[in-house]
């Protein structure tokens, strides 16, 4: 556990009674907190430096934004939380720092975000020695997951939204779909220096995910070990299959409902956070990823874990909100950037969707019954089967979405209508 109080006092010299630390939720890898100060950071540092032989101001870049009283700080551990045997490279934090700087300085990307009315945090300081990233505080926000689960985690939403009615799932989905398409359209086939400086992919991490899929496919007796490995490899060890049409874009790479934040009503603000795993891949891969997570929320309503069983009405609402959001996202994406629905889109989307929805049974296991875990694995496997050995082997007719079709919660409800537009493009 990272000692935030000690870190703050040692780094900027402000006494413990002049600041507060609040743990933030949403991510599963980093330790993320909100730092609230009694006075602007610059004033606190100046007061410390006036009476100290070790000035704290020297730690911050001269252009750092130190006039605020609230910041978000992220510590990057060198291993998975509670699993010291699973290493994580802290290089991802340096990539995020560069990505945030790029998003604010690249004219096309900055313009795309402004046009979509979507915020990203500003980089304040990257403390490379202590592995802490300082970023701007975007305010009291709720994750997209909590929004979709509004009536399931009512205490969370009520505390943040005070009972006010927010924008509709369709409006939020359309906004995210437009923003995602705008980011992709502004970063088509990025130059080699962008790929080198602004992407994070490690074969070890990809191999771990492949291993998780193999275990899930065999655990539920869907495949032999050999066939499970063959299917798992379809995700591509760089997290996305190589597109034959050559179209690639720069994207978040870890786009899920926990990285999409919403402001409190009546505002309809949106922010995209956690840029530590950006990648360059076909745009279909990232669209498939976010739709998989949305489908995962719909599965929660149909196959809830023991102790999380909602009433019939609440379950229907959660499922309807998820499907309404996902459908609007897909429609808005296609409308904003039809040129991205290229030949390779279908297989990239199937692979991204298949990987992420199957992994729900592992990464979000606490939300599903045993039947639900199996259903997500079946759904993910079905998408990977449909993806075939290559783009020439894609066959949507193979999509045997056994669990999803009956309840209307699977990729057949979210992904197939979008892929139909690809075939028309």
UniProtKB/TrEMBL annotation:
The keyword Nucleotidyltransferase does not apply. Signal peptide: none annotated. Pfam families: APH. InterPro entries: Aminoglycoside_PTrfase, Kinase-like_dom_sf. Residues 69-298 form the Aminoglycoside phosphotransferase domain. SUPFAM superfamilies: Protein kinase-like (PK-like). Gene3D superfamilies: 3.90.1200.10, Phosphorylase Kinase, domain 1. Keywords: Kinase, Transferase. One of its GO terms (molecular function) is kinase activity. Coiled coil: none annotated. This is 4-hydroxytryptamine kinase. It comes from Vanrija pseudolonga. The lineage of its organism: Eukaryota, Fungi, Dikarya, Basidiomycota, Agaricomycotina. The gene is psiK.
């Amino acid at each position: 556990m990272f000692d935030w109080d000690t870190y703050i006092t040692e780094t900027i010299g402000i006494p413990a009674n002049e600041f507060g630390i609040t743990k933030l939720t949403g991510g599963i890898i980093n330790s993320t907190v909100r730092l609230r100060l009694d006075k602007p950071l610059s004033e606190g540092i100046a007061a410390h430096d006036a009476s100290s032989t070790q000035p704290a101001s020297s730690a911050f870049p001269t252009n750092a934004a130190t006039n605020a009283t609230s910041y978000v700080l992220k510590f990057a551990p060198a291993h998975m939380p509670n699993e010291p045997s699973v290493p994580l490279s802290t290089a991802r934090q340096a990539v995020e720092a560069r990505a945030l700087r790029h998003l604010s300085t690249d004219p096309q990307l900055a313009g795309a975000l402004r046009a979509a009315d979507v915020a990203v945090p500003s980089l304040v300081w990257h403390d490379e020695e202590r592995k802490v990233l300082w970023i701007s505080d975007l305010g009291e926000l709720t994750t997209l997951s909590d929004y979709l689960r509004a009536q399931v985690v009512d205490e969370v939403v009520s505390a943040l939204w005070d009972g006010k009615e927010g924008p509709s799932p369709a409006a939020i989905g359309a906004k995210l779909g437009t923003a995602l398409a705008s980011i992709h359209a502004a970063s088509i086939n990025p130059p080699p220096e962008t790929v080198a400086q602004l992407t994070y992919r490690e074969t070890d991490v990809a191999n771990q995910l492949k291993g998780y899929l193999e275990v899930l496919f065999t655990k539920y007796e869907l495949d032999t070990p050999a066939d499970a490995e063959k299917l798992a490899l379809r995700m591509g060890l760089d997290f996305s299959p190589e597109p034959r049409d050559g179209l690639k874009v720069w994207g978040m790479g870890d786009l899920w409902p926990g990285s999409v934040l919403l402001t409190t009503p009546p505002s309809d603000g949106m922010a995209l956070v956690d840029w530590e795993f950006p990648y360059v891949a076909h745009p279909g891969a990232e669209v498939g990823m976010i739709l998989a997570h949305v489908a995962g929320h719909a599965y929660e309503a149909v196959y809830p874990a023991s102790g999380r069983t909602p009433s019939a009405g609440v379950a229907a609402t959660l499922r309807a909100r998820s499907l309404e959001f996902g459908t609007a996202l897909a429609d808005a994406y296609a409308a904003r950037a039809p040129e991205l629905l290229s030949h390779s889109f279908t297989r990239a989307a199937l692979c991204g969707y298949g990987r992420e929805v199957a992994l729900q049974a592992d990464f979000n296991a606490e939300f599903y019954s045993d039947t639900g875990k199996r259903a997500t694995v079946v759904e993910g496997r079905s998408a990977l089967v449909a993806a075939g050995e290559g783009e020439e082997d894609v066959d949507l007719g193979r999509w045997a979405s056994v669990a999803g079709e009956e309840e209307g919660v699977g990729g057949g409800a979210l992904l197939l209508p979008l892929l139909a537009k690809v075939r028309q493009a």
